[in-house]
Amino acid sequence: MSLQMKLVAITLDCPDPPALAAFYQQATGLEPHPKSDADFAGLNGEDGLFIGFQRVDDYRAPRWPEQTVPQQLHLCFEVDDLDEAEARLLELGAGKPDHQPHEAARARVLTDPAGHPFCITR
After folding, report:
1. How far apart (Å, rounded) are the C-alpha atoms in residues 111 and 47?
2. Are strands 31-32 and 50-55 parallel, antiparallel or unpaired?
3. What confidence tens digit (pLDDT) does each residue in 44-102 have?
4. Whole-angstrom distance between the N-terminal and C-terminal Cα of the chain?
5. d(C-alpha 112, C-alpha 80), whole Å
6. Global pTM?
7. What is the DSSP code (8-state) at residue 88?
């Protein structure tokens, strides 16, 4: 018999949980968790997936693609229009590293306001 596991939560370390939760809420449309506070904020997805953001003192943002501070986690989001999604995410506070390992028509690597790299793909 094989073990069945369902991913129900992902938590990111960051210096400012409410700010990072607001970025992802605006980017994804997920609903803020009602018990979010300055030390731990969260977003609820319709499919039951919870994304949490926890305050870490002396937080050091990942350095992507170099590994002087490892990326620790990499999220991927599927979008309908890469150019439109990239423009909106940059407007919300995302960054775009110079190093892009994929064809621009297929995927883009961005960083959230706390420095975590994530991909948007078609």
Report:
1. 25
2. unpaired
3. 998 889 999 999 999 999 888 888 887 777 788 989 899 999 999 999 999 999 999 88
4. 35
5. 19
6. 0.81
7. H
